[in-house]
Amino acid sequence: MRDLPWPARVYLVAVIGAAAALIVRSVMVSGAPVADEDLDILLVLALLFLVCESMPTLLNVEQFAVSVSFSASLAAVVLIGPEGAALVGLTAVLSVRPGLPLIKRLFNGAQFAICGYAAGRVYEALHGRVGVPEVNAFDDLIGPYAAATAVFVPLNIVLTLTMIGLATRVRAAEVPMRGMGQFLLSYLGYGTFGLLVAGLWATVASISAVLVLLPLFVARWAFGQYHAQQRSYDATIAALCQAVETKDYYTRGHCTRVSHASSMIAQEIGMRTERVRAIRYAGMLHDVGKLGVPTKVLQKDGPLTEEEFAAIQLHPMRGLEIVRGIGFLDEAYAGIMHHHERHDGTGYPMGLAGDEIPEFAKVIAVADAFDSMTSDRSYRGARPVPVAVDELRKSAGTHFDPVMVAAFIRALEREPWQPPRRVDPPPPEAAETPIKDHDDPTMPIQVVTGQ
Ligand SMILES: [Fe+2]
After folding, report:
1. Comparing C-alpha atoms, which of 52, 54, 80, 81 is closest to residue 68?
2. 286 Cα: distance to centroid of ligand 1 (angstroms)
3. Binning pLDDT at 50, 70 and 90, where does residue 344 land?
């Protein structure tokens, strides 16, 4: 609590205070928040909420996790009313999430209580009947229930984002909104489980929770497997990336930055999520073929012989050979293989031109050259971002695909680039320092012919 900025502390106290006031008021008005005959329902829903809250599920969206616990709150809105929904939400305080600080538990419990209560009030205001629904009256619940969900979900998001914003001093406008649409849709979709629990209660009572939960947990398990797989993919890529960067003192971090710039372009041109992930991998691994180029060639001072230059030009093919067996890379292969093709057809390894060049390769070419220009190299300092952007503009239509250059410039206006920190000269023992960067479009490698 002491670590929180004062506005966050005030907000936290206000949210907890509001939730406490709701519960106290309901006790004062009706003697108890929930009637005695509804206690069993309260208990089952609170347990359901607690189980789900203890296991939030990551969505197929990078920065969001969702717990389906709120569907228990929404079921409570129908079965036992707003006060009951508030009490069910309050059980978030007891969630089994090791390491979750008490302050976060209190906030979660309070904000879920407020959301449940507000949703319940809306449900009642729209003449939703509180109690175990009768089969022939089920249709009448749907409208008020949809309205209650439409209040619960945004209120929950606003209360939580406000807390995050105040605690981390991130303004709402800076909160990453990528994937928010998918997150909202999933969130609203999970809301329907509450209606199912409430609807089934009339026939199978508390077993309805199990019936609804079972497929939910199977889905959650599948999601967990998927994310574990993603993490192992990421670790594989990171290891390969690190192996490449040990060959080159000055290009440390280059793969990660190319990956980031590539995903900026990919999003700008509207690639779908799976392709953005694939291009991120391709950006990380675009130079993995350098592992197959003799270090003495990469480190050579002065012009290269034709053979040495040919060895450098082979690195996209070598890259493809190295990663060919990694099944999940899919389209990333094309990006790795063709990232040195040029729009005018004078690139390598195949001399493809214009639309012959795979889209991934066009994207990576821009990201690669930009990061090279804005990073320190042994033979020159980093160029400022505007200079590098000018260079990209000048070479659009010859070296680079103009569509990708324009997309990157737009993306940079939205998300300013953070160039890497200055690179100090390498310590004497770090002799593995290439003299020339093959990615640098402003200083082409000198090749001596006829040697
Ligand atoms: Fe390369």
Report:
1. 52
2. 6
3. very high
